[in-house]
Structures are given as structure tokens and as C-alpha cells.
Amino acid sequence: MPEAIYLTAAALLSLVGMSWLALSMDVHWAQVKQIPLADSRPPRATLKALGYAALFVSLLVCLVADRPSIAALVWIMLLVGSAVAVAFALANRPGLLKVIWP
Amino acid sequence: MTWVHTWFGLVLGFVLMVCFFFGSLSVFDREIDRWAIPETRFDAQPMPSFDKVLLPALQQLEPDEVDYATNMPRLHDPAKGEMTPRTELPVDEYWAYVTHRDPVLAAGVGYGVPLAKNPEDHNHIHKNVTLDPRTGAVLPDDKLKIGSHWFYPMHYSLQLKWKNLGIWIVGLAALMMLAALVTGVIMHRKVFREFFTFRPWKRTQRASLDLHNLTGVVALPFHFFFAFTGLVIFASFYFLPVTSTLLDPLHKQHEIHEAAATGLPHDAAGVPGPMSSVDAMVEEAKRRWAARDMAGEVGFLVMHHVGDANSYVSIYRAGSDRVALVGEGIHFKTSTGEVLSEDPPRTPVSEVNEFLTGLHLQHFEHWFLRWLYVLGGLLGAVCIATGFIFFVEKRKSQHAKSGSNGSRVVDSLAVTTVTGMVMAAVGMLVVNRILPADLLGKADWEKAAFWTVWGLSFVHAYVRSAPVALGLFNPAWREQCWGVVVLSISAVLLNWATTGDHLIKTIFTDTYWPVAGVDLSLMACAMVSGWAALKLVRRERGVGAQSRKIEKQPKTDTSEVAHA
């Protein structure tokens, strides 16, 4: 059971990290905030730092949950899944990303 | 770069679709086996007692009739004397294999060939069986393990067995995929800027390119490693077959030297020898693994030179708890049970090889990672499928103007390898549930159904592809999506009707995840296909309305219709 909790936490951290990285881009910031691209001024450095930090913590949580060889694979595949999930959220429900940066 | 990416991607993309889709299904091949063979729906079992269960079961077996008829005349030297009758062949080898997902056990006997043409070779006539490890009962041979014996080999051999043609084609496709990944990244320079970009509201050509780039770039590590490790697994087949051809004498000599170094007898002594308890050897092997901080179960067990004084037993650990496929083999003298040798520590090259191989073959017990692998495989399939759609969308208006059939053919093949392939796989499961369990040659009927559905899907896709030649959508996409919906729901209902295992039972009242997982996946497949079909209806209507509008205008251009 603790392993399931760790893996869920790692997945959420990965998803949030990817969302912050997406928001650090002008085009996606504008998409989420529903403002013209020309007015898009995301707090880029903060979002990038938070995004990479969340992904790193996600790796640490994976390492707590499993032995390193398996944890590395889980983490890489979580990044893949999270990136696709964020891309689909941006395509269909961009407002969802406001949850992590109101 | 673009030329290489486009044309190699197109031609070998059809093969790669098969590899990715059936590779994804192979992640749960054992679970699909459980679904297809209801009498094996019980919990996974560890390796049973060799002395009490396996040995009595293996001793009852006889050499396979087909193997004997095919290979005995090839292996036997008539100049040395009469061919030994099938049932009198001496037993030379026993083996058994199980994974953490197997309720049933794969086992077999290798029978020696007296008066062989080349006595130095491994001359064996085989009998391979599936055993119920709880009782040692042999399961009937004609039940096709659809997951592990059909979908799984399909992804690396295309089931083209003639001269191993399928394996060579898949190898070429994997190699070209590595090239396509490199050229794709070079072509698509804005890798990170467009990392999350998918615009489904744009026209099909743009939206499909977005999805192609997204699934290709985001899952790049997965695509790269699976193509690469697939090649590594078959490296000796593709790149170094000389060990069994030109260098065969050296290879045999090396075997003898290795046997001398490890103390494992290369040849039988020709003197009968007793058999001590193999279960005691298993206990000793487990004790030694635990002492190395690698406590585990037995995955593979093999006894060589059965009944001979030189007989020995090799016991390998199941790789359920790690990525690398490390057997940690321990070898025992059959007559006394003493340890003859333990596999030496691995070299760095061997460590890397075992990690890469294990990464692809995924023997580990980690359900979350297995599902992430399915996601990676399906993203690969989406990447290739959207590549096909982009190819057609980009060219179909030009082809419509020039009267070329190129887009029509590519589109039909794309339909066949996307929806057609899913219909073939699910259709096979439907036929598995419709045909009586005791039907003679049921496996052959299931295979025939698979190829027939797939073949018909191509005929249907091509017959319905006339609109593509006019720069419009092929309605076969939508129609085959509905086909997938009907087949998927039918498979779930037929499973319920023929076995009583409905989803409420397999999830809640008598939980059995292998079958519940397959049923839930079929339902998810039906939902996604139904959603796609409805989207296609809307898009076709939009294009139809647009084209009617354009027809009313004086200067109509087919290319405009295509871009509408």
C-alpha cells in the first residue's frame, strides 16, 4: 500500500511539474489565461524552477517506492504520460491548469 | 532528411504499427491467455515440487509426433542403423518455466536421437506442454494461448515463419525507426517549444502533424529504447549469425572449454546414474540467493543428461523484482545434489546487456510500470498512424487533381493497419468465445479468423476509399471504428455468456484481475472507437457541407475541398 501512495504522489508531482513547465511558455500561458498571445507574460523563471523541482522530487519519490532500475523507468514513463496529459488538457480544457496557478 | 523520414516511415510504418500495437498487447499476454483459455483462470503459482508434481508428469510424456516426423529423418543417420521408434527415444532433458503471472507452467522434455548424423550437435526431438502446477495435469495442446503464442510473436516476427522472414523485416523496421527518430528530431527543430502543442480544432493535416510530433517527441526515450533493445535482443540473429555458421566449430569448441571450466559435464557419460531430490536442490538454491540478498523464486529449471551419471540440474531465479534479467544460475550434480558451480559475477558488458534485455522483456512484477509501457506502445502506434494521416492529407488534393491513386492506396493501408488490426485482434477473441472449447483444430480456426478479418478490413478500406481520390475522407475509418465497437462489446458479452465471468464478478464478488483487465480494456477500446466514430461523422458532415457550398461557387478547386 505505501508503494501505491508513493507512486500516486510521483504521478501527481510529475503532472504538476509538466503543467508548470507548460505554463512557463507564452503560448500556453495565453491559452490558459485566455488572453492574447501578445499580452502573455508568464512568470517564466519561477514556473520553470517549480516545474523542474517538481519533476526532480517526483524522481526522488519513485526512488523511495522502488529499486533504482525500476524507479528510473517508472519516472521516465511518468514524464511521458504527464506531458501527453498536459497537452490534451491544453487542447481540450486549458482552464484546468488554473488549478495549479490560479 | 525529410525524404528519408517520409518514405522509410511510410513503407516500414505499416510494420512498426504491428510491432507497437501487438507489443503493447504483449505486456499483458499472460492475462489475454487467461481470457482465451477459461480453464486456466486461477491464481498464479510458483514453481511446483519437481519430485512430486513435475517429474511424474514429465515421465508420462511422449515425443511430439509432428516434431518426430519432421526432424527425426533429418537428424538420424540411416547408415548407422535403424531409426529408433518415436516412443522408444531416450529422455535427455527435462525443463520447466514459470513467471509471476503464470497460473500454468510451461514444461517439456528433450528426447535424444540415437545414431545421429552429427553426435556433437544438440540432437533433440521435443515434447512441450502446459501443466497445471497444482496437480501436474497436462492441458490439451490445441488451446491457443492467444496472448503469448499469437500476439507476442506477432510483434517481433509478424508470424511470417518462412526463413524467419518476419524477424528480418521487423529488424529492418526497427533499424529504420531509429533513423526516422533521428531525422524526425532534426526536421522538427522546435522540439521543446512545441512540446505540449496539440490543436485538434485545426484542419486534419495540421492536427495530425501536431499529434505526430507530440507523440513522437514526448515518448522519444520509449520509442528509441524499445527499437534499440529489440535489436539488442535479436543481435545474435541479425548481426552475428556467424557463430552458428562460419564459426560453428569454434562455437562448439568454446562450449567444451566452458564446460571444463565450470565443471558442468558437456557430454553424457554413457553410464546410468541415480536422481537425488531436485526439491532439495531448489531449497539450497533459494538459500544461496537469500544469502546474496536476492531472495526469490525459481523461474527456470532444467535437468541435462537425464538418467546419466553426468546429469546435472541448473536452477535459475525468476526476475520478478528487478529490470535486469539475472538468472543467478546454480548448478547441481543430479546424482548427489552437490553444487557443481554457480554462475560467475557478471561483466560490465553483460550487466548492460541484461538490463537492456530486461527493460524490453519486462519480467518484473510492477503493474503500474506495465501499464505505463502500454501507454508508451500505444503512443508509438498513434505517432505512426498520425504520420500516415498526415501523408495522405498532404497529398490527396494533389493526387485528386492529377488522377493518381497513391493517396487512396496509402489511406486504405492505413485503415487496415489501424482500425483493421484492432478488429482482427478483437475479432480473434470473439471467435475464441464463439467456437466450442473442444472443437478439433480450434487454434487453426482462430488464426484463420484473425487473418480473414484483417484481409477483409483491407478490402473494405479500399472499396470504400473512392472519396479519397476526390480529396475527401475515407468513410472506412468511421465504419471500421463502429466495427471495433461491435466486436469489443461482443467479446465482453460472449465472455460472460460462455464462462459466467462478467465484470461485476471479476472485479467485485470473485475478483480475478487478469480477466477483468482484458474486459475493461475491451470496453475502453469500444468507448474510444465509438467516440472517434462520432467525431468522424461530425467532421465528414462538416466537409460535406463545405464541399456542397463550394460546388455552388463558380470556380471550384478540389484542393480547396481537401483543405476545408
Describe this structure in words.
The complex is a heterodimer of chains A (102) and B (564). In chain A, 75% of the residues lie in helices and 0% in strands. Chain A has 102 residues and is mainly α. Chain A starts with a helix and ends in a 10-residue tail after the last helix. Chain B is of the alpha+beta class and 564 residues long. Among the domains of chain B are: 50-141 and 252-361, no CATH class; 405-564, no CATH class. In chain B, a hairpin with a 7-residue loop joins strand 1 and strand 2. The two termini of chain B are 29 Å apart. Chain A binds chain B through residues 7, 18, 21-22, 25, 27-28, 66-67, 69-70, 73-74, 76-78, 80-81, 83-84, 86-88, 90-92, and chain B through 193, 195-200, 214-215, 218-219, 221-222, 321-324, 355, 359, 364, 366, 368-369, 372-373, 375-376, 379.
Number of discrete helical segments of chain B:
20
Name the helicity range of chain B: 55-70%
Query: What's the mean pLDDT score of chain B?
Result: 91
For the largest interface, the chains and their residue counts are: A-B, 26 and 28 residues
Sum up the overall morphology of chain A in one term.
elongated
Judged by helices, strands and strand pairing, the structural class of chain B is alpha+beta
> How many beta strands in the DSSP annotation of chain B?
7
- Approximate shape of chain B: globular
Question: What labels describe this entry?
Answer:
heterodimer; A: 102 residues; mainly alpha; 4 helices; elongated; B: 564 residues; alpha+beta; 59% helix; 8% strand; globular; disordered C terminus
